[in-house]
Write a structure and sequence with these properties.
By secondary structure, this protein is α+β, with helices and mostly antiparallel strands. It is built from twelve helices and 15 strands. The longest helix is centred in the first third of the chain and has 35 residues. The N and C termini lie far apart (63 Å).
């Protein structure tokens, strides 16, 4: 019996290094697959490695991040947070949680975690790099640039910082200054997927390229002489790796005991420049109450880079011309997108002028607020006092609306909106809208 026990113990001792070796080999294999962009393969290997690991913190972190890279945010966050219950002081797990939150747009919470780590470890490269990336996400490219330069001062070949500087300079519109950082990153890791997606986005960028949205709106009107409305639409967008888009949209509107079908097409151009633009044109064959045609141009440009304590501010502008059966209308609007510092909220005040079919100019203004409650959930509200054209009549209207945006897994997003429009000396219209968006 004693001999048998010793034999079994010896076998166990021999098996332990082999098991550890298998685990280490799996981790290296998973990292290789991840860096090459094969995220499903990396996920499969990491799930296998977790079954072999005695201390699962490393495997949990890597698996959580690979899931997040595939936009499986909920599962990735759950794995990392469960691991933190076992090892609450693990810095890598804390930063992993912050990264996943940042991918979901929950920047305030991610920044709090990152800043807390930097207060303890000012030279933590991963935390410094994440702080730079968070600044970039919050449209603070100058702040991001400073963070990434700090990382490179400590590690001249840090891939995250090199790519971060490339992205930051692009966001500032400095294409010539951005390119050398990408070239340096390519020398450090020529086959890394993050390098290849920037060098050859059409070939390597795995982000969704298509988006289909469909929606329904029902409006009730307090004037018994006017029928309720029922509007439907479907829209397709082609999403390019450089951020540009092309779209076509068809609306079928049932209003005023008539129906109109509007066909609209547009382009989003220069989306990674200092002056992104969107142009659109729409036509309504046999128009009854909608414009025969309309054209719209809108754009934005940064006023501040977020260096100060007041946050980032963008100047926005819109010009629209619409041709109705009884005349033309023009709309001119200037506004701001103000991203509050250290809060996952932004405000969009605007002012403008509307010229109606009779050539009468009326001042218009509005204010909207948007708040990212969590990764998948956003809410917002708006108020405006501006002329609106309905059934060929342009009348000053007071509009209030609230919306709820909810992510449903990796590819679906649901929008629900309630709004009320009070037309001066006319009627009040209340509407409920639902939109389902699918990306693939």
């Amino acid at each position: 019996m004693k001999s048998l026990t010793l034999t079994l113990l010896a076998l166990a001792l021999l098996a332990t290094p082999a098991l550890a070796q298998d685990y280490d080999a799996l981790i290296q294999q998973a990292l290789q697959q991840r860096n090459q962009g094969d995220l499903p393969a990396a996920e499969k290997i990491l799930r296998q490695a977790r079954g072999l690991a005695k201390d699962k913190a490393e495997a949990d972190y890597l698996l959580g991040m690979v899931l997040a890279f595939q936009q499986k945010y909920t599962e990735g966050l759950q794995i990392i947070e469960a691991a933190l219950q076992v090892k609450p002081d693990d810095i890598e797990l804390q930063l992993g949680r912050a990264r996943v939150l940042s991918y979901q747009g929950v920047y305030q919470q991610a920044s709090q975690i990152t800043n807390k780590i930097l207060a303890k470890e000012p030279a933590n490269l991963e935390a410094l790099s994440l702080a730079g990336r968070l600044a970039y996400y919050q449209r603070q490219p100058a702040v991001a640039e400073q963070r990434f330069q700090h990382v490179l001062a400590l590690d001249a070949n840090n891939l995250d910082a090199l790519l971060g500087l490339y992205d930051s300079y692009l966001q500032q519109g400095e294409t010539d200054q951005a390119q050398p950082w990408l070239e340096r990153a390519a020398k450090v890791a020529p086959t890394h997927i993050e390098v290849l997606t920037r060098q050859q986005p059409e070939q390597y960028n795995a982000e969704p390229r298509h988006q289909i949205s469909t929606g329904y709106s029902r409006s009730t009107i307090d004037n018994p002489g006017i029928s309720n409305w029922q509007d439907r639409f479907i829209e397709y967008r082609h999403l390019q790796p450089n951020g540009n888009q092309q779209y076509v949209r068809v609306e079928h509107n049932n209003r005023f005991n008539s129906t109109d079908t509007v066909i609209e097409a547009g382009l989003a151009l220069q989306q990674k420049s200092l002056l992104p633009l969107e142009v659109a044109i729409g036509v309504t064959p046999n128009a009854q109450f909608m414009p025969h045609w309309f054209g719209r141009l809108q754009g934005s440009t940064p006023l501040t880079d977020g260096k100060g304590s007041y946050g980032t501010v963008l100047l926005t502008g819109l010009v629209q011309y619409s041709s109705y059966a009884n005349g033309d209308t023009q709309r001119l609007q200037l506004g701001l997108d103000y991203y509050l510092p250290n809060v996952d909220m932004w405000l969009t005040p605007n002012i403008g002028m509307v010229r109606d079919q009779n050539g009468l100019d009326t001042f218009a203004w509005g204010l909207a607020a948007n708040w990212q409650l969590s990764g998948p959930t956003r809410i917002g509200a708006s108020y405006s006092d501006a002329p609106e054209t309905e059934n060929l009549v342009t009348t000053d209207s007071k509009n209030v609306s609230v919306y709820w945006r909810q992510g449903l897994g990796k590819t679906f997003v649901l929008f629900l909106t309630w709004s009320q429009s009070e037309r001066v000396n006319s009627y009040t219209r209340k509407a409920i809208d639902g939109t389902l968006q699918y990306r693939f």
